[in-house]
Every structure is written in structure tokens, then in C-alpha cells.
Amino acid sequence: MLFIINNQQAKMGKKQGRHQDKKKQEKLEEQEYQQKTNIGLGIVIFIIIGLLVYFGYSIYSQIISVYDHSQTTENQTRYSSDGDTLLCVDTNQKDTFSVNDGVKVIGAAAFAKCNNIRVVKLPNSLECILSGAFCGCTSLREINIPAIVRYVGDYPFLGVKKCTINSNNNRFKFIDHCFIDLKEKMILSYIGNDETIDQLPKDISIIGKKAFYNNQSIRKIKLGKSSITMIMEEAFGFCTSLQHIELPEYAEIIGNPFVGIHKNGLTSQENNRFLLSSQGLLIDKKKRNLIAYIGKSSTITLDDNELPIQQSLKSIGRDAFCDCCFIQTINTSGCNIEKIDDNAFGDCDNLKQLFNNIINN
Fold it and tell me: What is the value of pTM for the model shown?
């Protein structure tokens, strides 16, 4: 009997032992799983922190780069990171400047304010010259245009007074003081000091944006019999010595070619599509559009008695009164203005009354 009891106790002990071993095994497995989970979370957190550090540093570097650029642009010559584009030239550069070989693009206003550069040497790799690239290079006397240049933007030589442009390019030529895009039949820049503009290079159709801008030598524009079919905005802007205007009968006028010219006594041709009234209002009679105001009165009446009633104004063109900061009142009684284009009254800071309504400054 005692033997049976001891045997049963032994069996129960073994069973409890196996149960305890199982619990220990499960606990070990649970601990191992928790360790693996913690390691996995640690790796994920490490990766996230690494990414945050990386992108944070990248953003910081960009901010520093922008800051440095804003601090050093004025007196540093800079190229794009790939070396394809000349972005800007040191304004202290003197005499001769040679653009690096391999450069394909001269950036917009890249040579702006480089008043002491006399000669610019462009590489044969050059393909594009962007707008105003040599703007304000008042001392520039010589530059070459490489053969493969395929694009030149607006007013590339604005402010250049006297320069020889050597070009072996079939599209861009320097003829009779005019830098020309032969494909577009357009004058891009005028580099001369003629008092009268009456003869332009043969087959030219377009006077480009700011082509004659701020030329103080020009006194007369006599293009009434020319082949010009389009005159772009600000083409003769701030030519403040101007005394007489004759425009081609069939030319399309884009914007205001005479921005910044404000004087009394300008004269114009008679019996032409373009009328310059005694007030200084330049009007396209065919389109019944006010192109420009070239006078300097503080009070203007648009119901001009020089216009027949059937030709009364219908629209005020883009930039028509731009930079007329002296104007205080524009009287439109009797007019039936249907359209006012963009920036028609730009920088008219003292304008108080228009269309009999008060304009707030």
C-alpha cells in the first residue's frame, strides 16, 4: 500500500516538474520575443533619427547657402554647379573678362553693373544669352558672338554706349549700330548716338522691347515710311531728349513704347493712324486706343476735341500712364471707356480722381 502511494507521489512530482519546465520555457520564449521586439524598435527609431538628421542638415545647408548667396552675390563671379551657366560676374572685374570654356548659357543680367569691363570673350560652347545679360556695361567696347548661339533674350546690351560686336553667327548680327535677330527680323539692342532714327537695317520688321531704352541722343524718330510692323513695350522708354515722333502707318504697338518720356511740345506726323494730341496723348485712331501719355500736366482730359466723335477712345492701353507720378486728375467726361489694360496707371502715386471716382492711395 505504501509503495502505491509513493509511486503516485512520484508521478505527480514529475508532472509538476514538467509543468514548471514548460512555464520556464514559455517565459524564456516571451523574454526572447520581447528582446527581438525591442531590438526592432531600436533599429526603426535609429533609422528615423538618422533621416531626421540627414534632412535637417540638408535644409540647414540650403538656408546657409541662400544666406551666403545673399551676402556675396555682389562681388563674386558664380557659375552653376554643373558649370553650364554663368550666373553673375564680380562687379569689381576690370578690363577683360573671359567666360569659362564649356559654358552654354549667360544668365539674365549676369554682367549687370560691371561698369569697368571693356572686353568680354565668350566661349565657342555658348548657346544662349538671356535677357539683359550685359545690361549697364557702360565701358564695354568689344564682344564676340559665337557661331552656335541660338537664342538671345530681350535688350541684351541695354545701357551699352559704344561697342563693337564681332559675330560669326548666321542669325545674330551687328549692323548699323543695331544688334539684330535676323530670323525674327528684330532689333534687340541699339548701340549708337544718332540724333535721328530714320533708317534701320534692311528687312527689319520689329523693334524689340527696350531696344533704344534710355538713349539720350535720340531727338527724332522718323519711321513713317519704314518697314516696321511691330514696336514692343518700352522700345524708346526714357529717351528724354525726344522731340518728334513719326510711327509707321501699319505698325502694331505693344504696350507703351515711350514709358518715362514726359514733356510738352512733342510733334508728330499728320494724317496718320497714330495721333499725338496737343495734350500729349498718343492715340491709335484705328483701334481707338490710348497708347501713351507723353505730356507732363497734372490734369488730363481724355475727351479731346482733336478727336472726331466716331473715333472717341474705347480703351486705355497697357502702361499708358505708367510712371506719371505727377498726374492728379484724369477727366473722362464724354468718353465711353470699355477696357483698361494691365498697369495702365502704374506708379501714378498722386492720382486722386479717375472716372469721377476717388482712388485711395
Answer: 0.75
